[in-house]
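Lab notebook, bench 4. The sequencing result for the construct came back, and we need a structural model before the next group meeting so we can plan mutations. Quick request posted to the team channel:

Model the 3D structure of this chain.
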Amino acid sequence: MDSERTASPAVARTLTVLETLVGSEEELTLTALAKKADIPLATCAAIVYTLELRDYATRRIVGRSHFWRPTLRLYGLATQLVRKVDLSTIAQQEMRDLADQLSLPVHLGVLTGTSVVYVAKAALPGFIQFDTYPGKVAPYNLTALGKAIAAYLPEEGLLPLLAHLSSGHGPRAQEATEAAFRQELLTVRKRGYAVEDQEEQADIACLAAPFFDGTDQVAGAVGVTGFAKDLRGKKRDAAQIGLRRLAGTISQRLGAPVS
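Done. Here's the predicted structure in C-alpha cell form:
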C-alpha cells in the first residue's frame, strides 16, 4: 500500500475524540467520552490530556470526577481559514445585486461534516429577514444549499452523508431512503440547482446552485429564501437563472476550470 495514502489510527482517534467533544451538548466524563467515541479508556485519556496541553480541551473537576469540554481554540483556527478563503466577501456586490433584483435575501453556505454552515448573506433594508444568518448551521439534507453541494460530491464524499441520512433505519428502509435521496440529487445535477420546499421550515422555500474551486470540486452553494407560495413560476425561473450566474462568477474567482 502507498505509504502516503495510509491512514494514521492515532490521528483518526484524536479527531474522533475532538469531534465527540464538540458534538456533545454537555460536558463529558472521561468514561462517557471514551464510550461515545468508541475508544479504549487509556487511549482516550492520553488524547484529552494532550488536547488540554494544546488548549483544545479543558476540564472541570468536581470531587473525583473530571468533566471535559472543547475550547474556542478551534474557532480561532476556523476564523483564520475563513479569512484566507474569504468566501464571505468573494461576491458581495453580486450577491447584493441579485438580492435587489429578486427582492429576496441571498446567502452562501459550505458543507461541514453533515451540516451546512451559512457564511455570508445579502439582504437589503426592508427585506423580510428569514432565518439564514451567517453562522447558522442546518442539516444538509433539509436545505437547498446542502442538496446543491451533495449532488456534486464524489462518491467517497457522498457515502458518509448517506450513512448519516439513513442512521436509525432498518436495512430495507435505509436502502429506500438512500435510493430516494440519490434520485433527488440526480435531479439537482440535471437542472443545475436544488430546491427546498418547506422541508426545514413550514411555508419557507429555497433554491440553491453550487460553485466550484480551482480543482473543479464543489466548494459550496449560493441560495435564495422566500415564502413557498411566492417562489414559484416566473419568480423561481428568475431566481435559478440568477443563482446559476452568481455561482459561475464565484467559481471563476476561485479558479475553477472554464466549462
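The chain is about 45% helix and 20% strand.
Will bring this to the meeting.
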